[in-house]
Amino acid sequence: LLSISCLGDCELHTSCGIQKCTTDFVSFTSHLNAALEDFDLEFCKALRAYSVCTYRNSKVCRGNLVYHSAVLGIGDLMNQRNCTKNGPTSSTNSEITHDLCNYSSHTEARERQGGEKTPPPTYLFCGLFGDPHLRTFKDHFQTCKVEGAWPLIDNKYLSVQVTNVPVVPGSSATATNKITIIFKSYQDCTDQKVYQAMTDDLPAAFVDGTTSGGDENTRSLHIVEKVSGKYIEMHARYIGTTVYIRQLGHYLTLAIRMPQELVMAFEESQDLQLCLNGCPSSERIDQSGYLPLPVMGKLLPWGAASHPRSGYTLETATTKCHEKMLVKDIYFYSCLFDLLTTGDDNFTAAAHSALQDVEALHPSKEHWHIFPRSGDDGVGRDSKFFVSLELLRLILVPYL
């Protein structure tokens, strides 16, 4: 069989790499003793490694008879030994085959190749929720108009675009009703996958109907439905990225964690990314770092177009937001702004869920909460954003 396939296309056979997969399998199993108790366990680990190796070579081995014979043989052996498709795999010192589509193992691979200790990867967080409030990869916090379609992320590996629509007449505040995500093709880990969510349509599958990318055994990219029609998670292991999408009321929220080195892998023409650089100054609702709160038909503290009465006063909005968020950080004050702007209680849940997503995905616990502070240093690492509640009370007394 080897000679036949080589006569057909020796060059293809050479580039295919199936021989390396087979050699590794023989190496993994040559020392095993069928009489030992752990034989089946170790043999199944070797078979799974063999299977992953053949999948990695599936494209270049498409016309190779030896490759197809090996794939069939692996399946037969796994059935005979009752091996599960998912589970641990055998590995060599030079290569960990089952980690090729696992970003967290890339550092280990570089260490083996270079012989030097490398620092663990740095992860960044971005979130969008409410009217809409943006927390950038730099932990800057902004409230923006950004009506229509805007790119949150656009790099070599991932594109995320959101569409925002006005929430109440006469207000510049908008909220997200559509999210489109493109996971770009990456080696043998996944083909390009497109996900799209809209208000009242939060699917647990990509637009092609699949729920994963790449090999089902490695699960390098997959969608998990947490609450039907309300909350899904996407896990892209091959790029170390996690995405949460929720629907709360009529609008969507998004939270994402991604390695810094991949976030920064973009072309000069891709510089318009809200998660990376924030909103353009012309799209900011907050002025000089202060967020105006609409109360009783006025936009305070610096005045703007009138708003319809939301049904909430500062006092009742404070009470409502305090039910979900005991800590008076930026998420609490975002809740106040959204309630006073729209009167929609769902924005309280959105702010609370956004904080929960930060706690789940943000890599630095000490940066989960960003608090209002006086002086010119601002909120977190951004410009001054919110005045204190006590100052707001003084400003708004004439209007209450």
Automatic annotation (TrEMBL):
This is RGMB protein. Keywords: Autocatalytic cleavage, Cell membrane, Disulfide bond, Glycoprotein, GPI-anchor, Lipoprotein, Membrane, Signal. It comes from the Eukaryota. Pfam families: RGM_C, RGM_N. InterPro entries: RGM, RGM_C, RGM_N. The keyword Transmembrane does not apply. The gene is Rgmb. GO terms for molecular function: coreceptor activity. GO terms for biological process: BMP signaling pathway; positive regulation of macromolecule metabolic process; regulation of primary metabolic process. Residues 16-85 form the Repulsive guidance molecule N-terminal domain. GO terms for cellular component: plasma membrane; side of membrane. Residues 123-363 form the Repulsive guidance molecule C-terminal domain. It is found in: Cell membrane. It is a lipid-anchor; GPI-anchor. PANTHER family: REPULSIVE GUIDANCE MOLECULE B, RGM DOMAIN FAMILY MEMBER DRAG-1. The lineage of its organism: Eukaryota, Metazoa, Chordata, Craniata, Vertebrata. Belongs to the repulsive guidance molecule (RGM) family. Transmembrane segments: none annotated.
